[in-house]
Amino acid sequence: MTHRILLVDDDIELCELLEEYLQKEGLDINVAHDGLAAVEHLAQVNAAKQDYDAIVLDFMLPGMQGLDILQRLRTFSNTPVLMLTARGDDIDRIVGLEAGADDYLPKPCNPRELLARLRAVLRRTENQPTSSNSGVLSSHGIELNTGQRTSTINGEHFELTSAEFNALAALLAHQGAIVSKEELTQLALNREYTRYDRSIDVHISSIRKKLAQALPNVELIKTVRGSGYIFVNQADA
């Protein structure tokens, strides 16, 4: 199956380079150079049920900023988004992940690394975490169906991005036990954890905020300093 990717960046020369490289690797690439035009296009393909398999989105764009595009996109689509952030700015990375991006890559980016990140994003949207297998994970009223990739709390829909779903599934599958950042990065982001990479921390923080809104007055995910995270057993809460 050929994966459809939308590349949104106003750097025409960079887009031409990336498009040529990614197409040679078997990906079907569409390009948009303007933020507002990209949003309108994404709304149209969503309405036609022809969503892209992933979106590569620059943080700085004319017409509409990448962050605004992402926030608008998340109101109608869970299509995985990999954000490109100039100069590798930590603030841009964190804000993008908190807004619902699945991963990020600093600019200027190596086409080979972009391809590797895209493949990782595509794999994790197609496969469940290896630890949980296909089935239902549940605790504290939370229920994740890893086969259908649906999530509910007390029977109500619980909105999670693809990376958040995988991270929470990994924690639920090992509830009561510590899951290291290395393991979580591999299971949730399908790539190796690297030093100073805060991606998994930001995803866990986002999950915590969403859980706190749905299940106030209970701390379900605890940080084990220097080790990782632990999802509290229902009996111990």
Structure characterization notes:
The protein is α/β, with parallel strands linked by helices. It folds into two domains: 4-126, Response regulator (Rossmann fold, 3-Layer(aba) Sandwich), CATH 3.40.50.2300; 136-236, Winged helix-like DNA-binding domain superfamily/Winged helix DNA-binding domain (Arc Repressor Mutant, subunit A, Orthogonal Bundle). The protein is 41% helix and 22% strand. The protein contains eight helices and twelve strands. It has helices at residues 12-24, 35-47, 66-73, 90-98, 111-126, 162-173, 181-189, 199-214, and strands at 4-8, 28-32, 54-58, 81-86, 103-107, 136-139, 142-145, 150-153, 156-157, 178-180, 221-224, 228-231. Helix 4 (90-98) packs parallel to helix 8 (199-214) and helix 6 packs across helix 7.
Mean pLDDT: 87
Element-by-element helix/strand order? EHEHEHEHEHEEEEHEHHEE
- Tell me about the largest β-sheet: 5 strands, parallel
Q: Give the beta-strand count.
A: 12
The largest beta-sheet arranges its strands as 2-1-3-4-5
Fill in the keyword field for this structure:
237 residues; alpha/beta; Rossmann fold; Arc Repressor Mutant, subunit A; 2 domains; 5-stranded parallel beta sheet; 4-stranded antiparallel beta sheet; 8 helices
